[in-house]
Amino acid sequence: MKKDLRILVVEPNPERVREIFDALHKAGWSDVRAVAQISALERTVRDFAPDIVLIDLTNPDRDMLEHISHATEASKRAVALFVDQTDEDLTQAALTAGVSAYVVDGLKMDRIKPVLQTAIARFRMMRQMHSELDAAKQALEDRKTIDRAKGIVMRQRNLSEDDAYNLMRKTAMGQNRKVIDVANALVTAADLLS
Amino acid sequence: MSQTTLNCGYVPLVDCAPLVIAKELSFASEEGLALNLVRQPSWSALRDMLALGHLDAAQMLSPMPVAMSIGLGGLPAKVDTLMVLSVNGTVFGVSNRLAADIGHVPFGDAHAMLEALSLQKGKPLRIGVPFHYSMHRLLLSYWISTVPGLTIEEVTVPPPRMADAIADGFVDAFWVGEPWGSVAVQQNVAQLMMSGRDVWQFAPEKVLAVRHDWVEANADIGRRLMRAVYQASAWLDEAQNKPLAVEILGRSEHLSVSPDLIDPALTGRIVPKLNAHPEKIERFLRFHKHAATFPWRSQAAWIASQLGADAGGIQKAKKCFRSDLYRQNLTGLGADMPGASEKEEGALQFETAVASTRGHMILAPDAFFDGRTFDFTDAFR
Fold first, then answer.
1. What ipTM, to 2 d.p.?
2. What does the domain layout of chain B look like in residue ranges?
3. Which residues of B touch A62 (CB under 8 A)?
């Protein structure tokens, strides 16, 4: 009987929407809809009349959703799920995973729980993937900067690649800085002077 | 002295300045606090993080602790206001299209502006505010409600998106905190018509909030936090410090906008329209002078009454503005304390000397645009 829960996902990134949809479908909820634009949020909440709204904690549209939840006639009984402080574990899990949920009708906690647990697991995974991707991108950027800096040192001091890198590393250690910081300084200085 | 780390939430607006200055100019570390400023994406997120203990303290919109105390707005929790962080500092602006429709209205004339709005035909105007429980929204509702039959639609829009919302026609007007009004002007999508103080001359805007239980359990940390913020606010209100304040706020990672968008609020020179001369606005944004940091219990009562609270709710609201802690914790710093913790809100038309512990206190005008006054002391007796 859990299929009759209407779930709205507020998320601008289509890829993430797909991820969440997949997870919810797999867990047995098919009446799921997504909204990306804030301008469409109010109408969707009114027309679709969701039982639960899922939104990323870091989404700035949360304030608007909250306003809609307690302003629209159709959803007078709306409550932010974090209100349910009786379930401390679930609340903490949702917070750290980055899920905010709004329960738009007077639903019992035991019916909401599985939906949220699915969402929490999915959000957590996406968050981790994102931070790994960000770290990988950053590493690539750092590598490029260090290579450029190395090139500058090689030219200016007439050093081999290894010696240039060792000089940068020694300088960094001596100043208690990271190699990338020294490299950044070198590249900036070179740009200024060129 | 080993430093106590304190996680403090804020939303990137010019009036988060007391927290940034407390950290960057070491007022906090002198009190033995490592102030970890944690930027929040929305007011609801900030509220949840504070209520559930992920933050120790936070900059809040002044109506938020009151709403929470009387059980409104999603998350009932006991949150106390330790002190006021800023007074005034908001602007009301309209889209260029609406500005063309209403014609010339003198800047800062709340009566003329209201008349112009009530002459607008067609669908109710959509007016953007940052959050339902904000001073912006309360002032807007108070102002609009003085014209019987004038209806508007209040729409919540995250402040950084206010300029886009007005450019897209999603809202016709807005009430927002700086720098976001100046941003809309710079993008040539809106004109500023008045500032918040044209409706209420001394409106508590942001407050320093903590959980009631937290401050009970961490009285000494709370005291040191209040001392640091008090000193930062005193520093901020000195005219000669303004240029440095603009620079610090501009270059810090806390507020990612350019200094020329921070300057108008701090110096009270607001450019209402692209390429227009700035309007010099007295007390546009106050951090310290005129007992700005004092959490008047009557301010809490006014907020509660605007939120529709009954006598019991007003009592609860008064208790969450901790003028008792303010007296207890800041007297040692030489702060002047008013003789009372409540005043008749709206009664002062001019700067007025009042009884205080050191005898130097001059309060700024706090009149409402329509001359009404609010005395909540009767309910207290």
1. 0.81
2. 4-87+204-258+285-336, 90-202
3. 41-42, 44-45
